[in-house]
Design goal:
The complex is a heterodimer of chains A (122) and B (493). Chain A is built from 5 helices and no strands. With 122 residues, chain A is mainly α. The longest helix of chain B is centred in the last third of the chain and has 32 residues, at 327-358. Chain B has helices spanning 5-23, 26-54, 76-103, 109-128, 132-151, 157-187, 192-199, 206-223, 232-238, 241-266, 269-274, 278-299, 303-324, 327-358, 371-374, 376-390, 396-410, 414-440, 454-472, 477-492, and strands at 57-60, 71-74. Chain B has 493 residues and is mainly alpha-helical. Chain B has a domain at 277-487. In chain B, 64% of the residues are buried. Chain B starts with a helix and ends with a helix. Chain B is globular, with a radius of gyration of 21 Å. Classes of the chains: A mainly alpha (122), B mainly alpha (493). The A-B interface holds A 17, 21, 24, 30, 33, 37, 40-41, 44, 47-48, 51, 73-74, 77, 80-81, 84, 87-88, 91-92, 95-96, 98-99, 102-103, 111, 115 and B 133, 136-137, 140, 144, 147-148, 151, 156-157, 159-160, 162-163, 166-167, 170-171, 173-174, 177-178, 181, 184-185, 190.
């Protein structure tokens, strides 16, 4: 039991990961899918950051009185990953806007129905 | 200057991309893109020759030594991939001018060039970097720009295709980062060489297995490993011609490189292949890709979609070589990165030329009727590339299949030879549909006649000729691939 509690950050990570994947797969709305994608990416941030933080640890600056330091590298990596995530989300939203202009809908089934109607018409 | 070549390889296209956006001139964009593409090819060839002469090159970015800083590392395998990618780029870039001018609104054309440069930078970066996280960043640079390239396609379906590709590609990249995160937790390093050494002493196997699973599925999505290929046919079919040719020839191939790198250089391949069912899984998925995707291609109406499904099948050959896992089969896999790139590049470049002349947004096989008389050179190039796709002796495709068959026989898998032959016969069926339409059916009245502009035609035909060249002179292609395969296998076993 204490093991499970001590690793609570991993449980949150796994929950976010699965929740994100579920939204991504189960929802037909293109915007909601992007939200799922963002949640999935957020879970990764936690996966990196949580183990890097030592309880009582400080920033890794050598100074008298401090002996435990948190690992700065994962924080920097995740800063990069957040930038990538933002770029992905921005591009995704831009494409959704264009899809809405072209199809007049952001529901996956309606868009596919329009495509099928096009095929049938040809 | 010479010692900074590894950095220039990536930095040149990376700088060109924002420069093109700033200048906003179409002719400047094209000139810069072409110059950068040729420069990249030159650098890649120089690097490759230096690797051949004096062994792997290690370059410390910002002079921070590995394993703390980011290391750029060129060895037999990454050098080969660099040459293969920049070779394709050097054919696509000159072709792009007329093709983009015909397919995009004038105010958007410079964006296409810019995205192409970014994509090139990302792909070259993936191949050259020796850092697992840096690889992720390049993976996303190349992927995000290729989503844009696809979304710029002429039909509205391009948007949906780009959206779907974006979802699956981002899930793939996220899975890859999860895998890398787990490996980092276990080893405390991101440098691939360092990580490989430290993984040998890791006692706890489960997180490493989880990392292996995440990386395999993540990269599998990116390289369109069957059954994770759902994004590929639409993305290739609806993208602008030049983007299809470039991405089909390079993007999935570079992802295969990542898979090879992790399977053979980072993870310990001995337990990976001996204790886990890696071989069986890869062979089964590859066969499924080779047979089912080829069959779908036979019945597909749209020409670009047909060849896109053929790409899924061809990726099956590449992963088959990984599954068989010996010197000959790995040589086959690696040489196919180049051979299939050249073959598919030629096909999609020539299809783009046909699309330009016919002016139609979608091309069915039936619309190729009479092509042999209307555009004789284009049709001829298409036939040559088609023969290479089938694997007829004297073409690049044959070299791949030869090595794969030798590899399968070495492993005692005789039945695989039959599977490769069956899959090739199915390829005959879909290539024949094109040949039949082009040469045996009369051209419809009023169909456009005449070849595409010389720049486009020359690029397409030159790539088709490369299919023949690499079928005869294999000193670079199979020679380089054989060195790379030997390096992968020698590394740790």
């Amino acid at each position: 039991m204490s093991d499970i509690a001590a690793h609570f950050s991993y449980w949150i990570t796994i929950f976010l990961m699965i929740a994100g994947m579920y939204i991504l797969i189960a929802r037909g709305n293109l915007l909601k899918k992007l939200i799922g994608l963002a949640i999935l990416q957020t879970s990764v941030y936690l996966l990196y950051i949580a183990p890097a933080k030592l309880i009582g640890g400080t920033a890794p600056i050598v100074a008298p009185g401090f002996v435990t330091y948190s690992n700065p590298l994962p924080h920097v990596l995740i800063l990069t990953a957040i930038v990538v995530g933002v770029a992905t989300l921005a591009l995704g939203l831009a494409i959704v806007v264009r899809i809405r202009e072209a199809y007049g809908s952001i529901e996956e089934d309606e868009i596919l129905a329009q495509d099928r109607a096009d095929d049938a018409a040809r | 200057m010479l010692e900074h070549l590894p950095a220039l390889q990536v930095v040149l296209p990376l700088i060109a991309a924002p420069l093109i956006v700033l200048v906003r001139s179409r002719s400047f964009a094209w000139l810069a893109t072409t110059a950068v593409s040729y420069a990249c090819l030159l650098i890649a060839v120089l690097l490759m020759s230096r690797v051949g002469a004096s062994g792997p090159i290690s370059y410390a970015i910002g002079s921070w030594p590995a394993p703390w800083g980011i290391e750029y590392r060129v060895d037999a395998l990454s050098g080969f991939v660099l040459v293969a990618v920049s070779l394709t780029a050097s054919f696509v870039a000159p072709y792009a001018q007329r093709s983009i001018a015909a397919e995009l609104a004038p105010d958007r054309q410079y964006l296409m060039y810019s995205m192409y440069c970014l994509s090139l930078a990302g792909l070259l970066g993936i191949a050259i970097t020796g850092d697992a996280f840096n690889l992720f960043v390049f993976l996303e640079i190349s992927s995000l720009s290729s989503y844009v390239l696809i979304a710029l396609g002429p039909r509205r379906r391009a948007l949906v295709a780009a959206y779907q590709y974006m979802l699956m590609g981002t899930v793939g990249a996220t899975f890859y980062v999860i895998g890398v995160g787990l490996l980092y937790l276990m080893t405390g390093t991101l440098n691939l060489v360092d990580m490989a050494e430290r993984l040998r002493s890791v006692e706890e196997v489960r997180p490493v297995l989880a990392a292996l699973a995440f990386i395999t599925v993540g990269i599998g999505l990116k390289l369109a490993l069957f059954p994770l290929h759902q994004w590929l046919p639409n993305a290739y079919a609806y993208a602008p011609s030049m983007a299809t040719a470039f991405l089909a020839a390079t993007a999935t191939k570079v992802s295969v490189y990542v898979l090879l790198r992790f399977y053979f250089s980072v993870f310990d391949p001995a337990p990976l292949f001996e204790r886990l069912p890696t071989r069986e899984v890869f062979i089964a998925l590859s066969i499924a890709a080779m047979v089912t995707a080829s069959l779908v291609a036979v019945f597909e109406r749209d020409v670009k979609r047909m060849f896109a499904y053929s790409s899924v099948a061809q990726i099956g050959y590449i992963t088959l070589g990984i599954g068989v896992d010996n010197q000959a089969s790995l040589t086959g896999s690696i040489v196919h990165l180049l051979n299939h790139g050249v073959t598919k590049g030629a096909i999609f470049l020539l299809l783009g030329a046909i699309a330009l002349r016919s002016g139609a947004v979608s091309m069915t096989v039936a619309s190729l009727a009479g092509l042999g008389r209307r555009m004789p050179l284009t049709a001829f190039g298409l036939v040559i590339a088609g023969l290479s796709l089938i694997g007829v002796p004297g073409t690049a495709g044959f070299i791949t299949k030869w090595y794969l068959i030798v590899g399968a026989i070495d492993r005692g898998l005789w039945w695989l030879v039959a599977v490769i032959l069956i899959s090739s016969l199915i390829a005959v069926a879909y290539v024949w549909r094109v040949v039949e339409a082009a040469y045996l059916r009369p051209a419809p009245d009023g169909a456009a006649c005449g070849e595409a502009p010389p720049g486009m035609l020359a690029a397409g035909l030159a790539m088709a000729l490369l299919c023949v060249y690499f079928g005869f002179d294999t000193s670079f292609s199979a020679g380089g691939a054989s060195d790379a395969a030997a390096m992968l296998l020698r590394g740790l076993r």
